[in-house]
Amino acid sequence: MSSIRLFILSSFAEFGPMHGHHLRMEAERKHVPLWTDISVGAVYGAMKRLAAEGLLREAGQQREGNRPTRQLYEITDMGCRVLSELRREGLTEIWFRYDPFDLALTRCDPESVEGLPTLLAERLEKIRALLAEKRKVGEIARASVGLSKQWALRHAEYRLEAEVAYLTDLIGAAQDIVSEEQAARKSRSVET
Predict the structure, then answer these.
(1) Neighbours of 153 (CB within 10 A)
(2) How many domains does the structure of the chain reveal?
(3) Residues 86 and 111 in one domain
(4) Which end of the chain has fewer beta carbons closer than 10 Å to its terminal beta carbon, N or C?
(5) How many Cβ atoms from other residues are within 10 Å of residue 135's Cβ?
(6) 13 and 55 together in one domain
(7) Shared-domain flag, residues 128 and 76
(8) Distance between CA 5 and CA 79 in Å, rounded?
(9) CA–CA separation, 171 vs 67, rounded Å?
(10) Are residues 126 and 177 both part of a single domain?
């Protein structure tokens, strides 16, 4: 599933022919980076890839004032079919990625495992700060977007709230993890 493909194709389906700068402005207006993994600056390259795949096609040129002439694009029939698939996939497919944090947790450095509770507390504070920032930005953005986008913004907050709860519980178990890792280290050193 490609978020940027879904955004670009759905924008062309909604607004009709446009150039890359217009699409970029639309992404900024809709606060797309607040609730997706899309970088606004990436739309230009992605548009060219979609055109190369036959999902967009050139639809003329536009010149506004003293600005350079810009190439207009529009969605193709094949682009509409792909868009339909992307919309369905986006709502039905589960996109779960493992967090490298979990691997790092299971691969603690035996020489510094005593610092694990402190590292976890620092991580928790960073997540709390990120959650506070998301809430603040989300509150401002929700005032200017529709209901579906409000819920998309809230989704990131729910995910961060879950991370806060997880880290809080993990900190409660951190000393037991440290003790277990230290015992395993002593056991390994006795064996060698």
Answers:
(1) 20
(2) 2
(3) no
(4) C
(5) 16
(6) yes
(7) no
(8) 10
(9) 56
(10) yes
Distance CA 163, CA 126 (A): 11
Q: Is the pLDDT of residue 95 over 70?
A: yes
Residue 19: which CATH number?
1.10.10.10
Among the three residues 59, 76, 92, which one is the final residue of a domain in this structure? 92
183 within 8 A of 175, measured Cβ to Cβ? no
How far does Cα 27 stand from its chain's mean position?
14
Q: Which two tokens stand for residue 135?
A: 């809430």
Amino acid at 167: L
- Measured CA to CA in angstroms, residue 156 lies from 40, 90, 149 at distances of 18, 16, 11
Range of the domain at 127: 100-191
Give 80's pLDDT tier (boundaries 50, 70, 90). very high
Summarised one tens digit per residue, pLDDT across range 156-191 is 899 999 999 999 999 999 999 999 988 888 887 777
* pTM confidence score: 0.73
Kindly provide the b/e burial profile for residues 44-54, where b requires at least 16 CB atoms within 10 angstroms of the residue's own CB. Answer: eebbeebbeee
Residue 9 sits in the same domain as residue 65: yes
Is the separation of the CB atoms in 83 and 9 below 8 Å?
yes
Q: Tell me the pLDDT tens digit for each residue of 8-49.
A: 999 999 999 999 888 988 888 877 777 677 777 888 889 999
User: Degrees (nearest 5) of the Cα angle 67, 68, 71?
Assistant: 125
**Tokens coding 115:** 């610092």
Torsion of CA 154, 156, 162, 164, to 10 degrees: -110
